[in-house]
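User: Please predict the structure of the protein below. I'd like the answer in structure-token form so I can feed it into my own downstream comparison script.

Assistant: Understood. Taking the following sequence of 933 residues as input:
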Amino acid sequence: MQSPEQVMAEQALNVSSPAQYSRFVQRLHRRYENWFDALPPGPPDRALMEQALSTLQARGLDLSAALRVLRQLVMERSIVLDCEQSAPLSIVVKAVTELAELALDRASAQVRAELDARHGAPRGPDGQSVQLWVIGMGKLGARELNVSSDIDLIYVYEHDGETAGQADGRGVISNHEYFGRAVKGIYTLIGDTTEHGFVFRVDLALRPNGNSGAPAVSLASLEEYLQIHGREWERFAWLKSRIVAPQADIQTPNVQALRGVVLPFVFRRYLDYSVFDSLRSLHRQIREHAAKRSAGHPERANDVKLSRGGIREIEFIVQLLQVVRGGQFPELRCRPTLEALQRLVRANLMSEEIAGALARAYTFLRQVEHRIQYLDDQQTHVLPTRDDDLLWIARTMGFPDACAFLHQLDEHRELVAQEFDTLLGGDTQQCGNGKCSSAKAAGDTPSPQEIEDMIELLPPALAGQVADWRSNARITGLRDEARARLFRLVERTAQWVESGQATEEAAKRFLNWLEPLLRRESYLALLLERPAVHERLLHLLGAARWPARYLQQHPGVIDELASDAIFKERFVAADFEHELALRLAALQSTGEDDDETLLNLLRRAHHAEVFRTLARDIEGRITVEQVADDLSALADSLLRVTAQWCWDRLKNRHRETPRFGIVGYGKLGGKELGYGSDLDIVFVFDDDDERAPEVYAAYVRKLINWLTVKTGEGDLFEIDTALRPNGSSGLLVTSFESYANYQQQRGSNTAWTWEHQAMTRARFVLGSRDFPPPTGEPVTDLHLHQRFDAVRESVITAPRDAAALRSEIKTMRERVRSAHPVRGGLFDVKHSPGGMVDVEFAVQYLVLAHSGEHRELIANLGNIALLQRAEEAGLLPKTVGYTAAKAYRELRRLQHVARLDERSGQLEQDQAQAQRDAVLTLWQSVFDAPVAA
């Protein structure tokens, strides 16, 4: 049975249509019923609003009145669409946003025309006209205004100077004064309350220096303010900034200057975890303000925007992840919240499940917010206390009653609050999906404030190292906040050493790693915010020396440790290249795609992927062979992407798609790359154009430079082109026909036996088919891949004198061995007799001598598989091939472990005796057995 209140609520909803319940709609119908026809049918967009505005002005309204009446018409139409036709949220926010853009565009045009008539147009230092940009912040910038939003604006003009004045020289004023008057004039047209109300409430509090600042600032003043005085919370405000008017100026290249000022302020070069504390502080202030407002007014606590689990917390979650990583990952930069959630998913910073839940919560809360404001056109986000109002909201949201609606509301808010606390709040540390909870100081006691205090808390091995910090300028020069973070990290590390969570050696390496990076305070913040990253970092540093050196050179990669996925996944070339394409598109959209930025982008992406492989390697999640596979696939991807980008940026290119290829040799060709391996490559082209040799020579020089040049982010690879025809005296890039003739012994200029040995491990890495064609055109495929494979097969299967081949390869083996002497009776896993090079030379002989009759040896499958095939073909005594293959795998592992710890790979003889004996048996079977007639 319904309560009396429920009965009254049901009766109150007895109206002709859902929208008619809104007291705001009722007022609009009483006042503007005869004006509704001015707005053409359909969802109100810019085009329909411009028609309506013209109609209203034609009926005698001036711009000020016409804009206000237009606002009322758009509001009425939006409420009907939303509450009666279930229009999606996007329709409503688009209408309100485009109304604001239209109003600001027309108002700024009229005000400037009036000011120009009195004072002349403002001029820059070179006499050029000066633009005034109306910058929309917050929801206006993100194109997601709600129906009773105020609009947060900042006015910026291009240059200081003065106006041209009138023809007689009168009326000259400074640009600063001119644009100050323009701001007042625009406010009068938009924000003043008249008989028709207002168009929008206007808030200028986000401008430089807030309410005490000038109403309009020059671009130079804005840049100085952001660089010197800009606060962390202002970065979040500027994240959604957008020039919204005048429309004519938005299309000009001048606006790029503003972008160049704002982007470096919002997005830092390095992963920036220092913003966590700033956002916590801002959120705490908002909650405290909300608590004060609701003190004595419990009904105000149910705020769908500012209360726990409200709209603001969803926005904070998204903006925090964008600001932290947007400097390095430009594809994360976007303004609308729902779009940003999807970008976070694509960047693996948030699971699709969580992003979907947050998106549904955001949409639901925004629709509730709109209905709250539909009731009386008040800028409020608090649920109404009247039963009939609450029931109306529930019914227009599709719920049968208020209880069902409130239950769904609570579910959404609880999920949002949990995600927010996981990312930024609570005392527990939880990591996952690329995000972790807040980190508190290590232990319950206050952290030490001075080095002497800290030394007393440390075990002796660490105390001595930290004692050296007393006179370290890097330490003494830290800000108090940064020093406190450092001490908390050291204290936490010491506690983990004492509890056995970390080794003493790992802690020492951690302190050595940390010291040079202290000027980059964001790393201190990152480790403090993410204890799981700190712990995994210690494990990596303690495992071997080379990871410690790599992390010293590329500290930004430690953020990769934040997600458990790093240990569960493998490198996927298509995903890697897709992410780079997204980042390139994002940079192109903001005009930031200069060469230096792209060089650094490639290097950061490479370092991150190498580090992911390294972490899996150290944790024992992948084998040595899988490490080599992934590093080789990564090199292939980087060659493809770099080749594409370089061709697109080559000034003298003579065709859209190059007719070009890259052949990989050595470890790249054999897919056996290790950490830090150089790339043995040969460049070829197949292009009859008379300009081709010159164009491809310039292209290859550019490509090599992009791959090898050291920037602030390091380099990509060392490139070795010595295996090209005629070696270092040959052309850097050669025609494929010349390359084929050289390899196949045609003409007087032909390859040597050692070059044919190298051909056994050669592989076609990249060709014309790897370059995207112009839109609408088919992929260019010169079949270079197949033609190279044919040349390689022809070379390695050619008939040879087995005895002469054996002699030449043994001579070459001795030459290599003499260049790498091993002293002290040690066994070098690579160069000593019985080492890896013996296996490689033996396999090369077997392929060159026998692949003509045994075609299963032609494929470039790697030494292990080829040894097994050779035994199965009867070319090796039973068990010799398989045993040698097993030994080679173990020798690779021993070499790999030694290199990770920066050791030489030279062992005591008995440490690899079985492997050595197996390889020597292989050598004897191949090179000391009688040659078949």
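That's the full token string. Confidence is low (pLDDT under 50) at residues 426-446.
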